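Morning. Coffee machine broken again, so started the prediction first thing and wrote up yesterday's gels while waiting. Chain of 300 residues, entered below exactly as on the submission form.
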Amino acid sequence: MGRGDEIVAVTGATGRLGARLALRLAAEGARQRLVGRDPARMPRLPDGGRLPEAQEAVIGSYADGEGLRRAFDGATTVFLVSGREGPDRVAQHRAVVDAAVAAGVERVVYTSFAGAAPDAVFTFARDHWATEEHVRASGLRWTFLRDNLYHHALTLFVGPDGVIRGPAGEGRVASVSHDDVADVATAVLLDERARRHDGRVYELTGPEALTLAEVAEVLTSVTGRPVRYEPETLEEAYASRSGYDVGPQVVEGWVTSYTAIAAGELAHVSDDVEHLVGRPARSLARWLDDYPDQWAHLAR
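Came back before lunch.
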């Protein structure tokens, strides 16, 4: 089967990463199937020329095994965007992988997380490791894209009072943009020598690792909104997040994203973005400058 005959099934097609990838694949003339829960939010791809009309598959959720199997029918590769954080996240990821196997898919490219390990400080990174292990055991060809925190996520760390609070100490985070991850995914998915990516783990980071105090300085400089960082103790971090209507597992994930920074688990700066797409990764400052709509909430 040649590349022109292959179909890439893009999960999470209505999200920030999946939608960006869908547009890039369309621009390259790739055949794809967009998989998501809300047809109204599927990305609108350009028509005409060599840009094909994308097929769409609507599923109830990642727990919808039969719906996923139908969505993947005829696909060669599945791009698996990790699901929402929650107690059943790993089970849902496994359901996606199992559906891909049942549908006869050959390869999965999975968006994992930096430092994925069974004993990672960041509890959600443990979920990613468990998913990786299931993919390894599935018999599918695989590539893992271990993303650092997204630049956009750092803007959400800022409270209504302009303060970033968390137990991150003086640790550093090498955050990355959604665009860079989408560009890497496009390169990996459409590489004529795709098998050279089989069994590879890529660490996707920005070009620098910043402390949260330095993140606050960058946010202040670019947005004009005064932002500062105030370290919290673990007790303070859990107390300040206790009022949210989420389960304890999600709160633990929120808090340990900061303690993982403190432990140095997110400080590694990789050149995998530059190696795979031929240009340097975008810094937080450049991303903020390019996407003012993404931090508009800071001005409110």
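The chain is about 40% helix and 15% strand. Going to sketch it on the whiteboard this afternoon.
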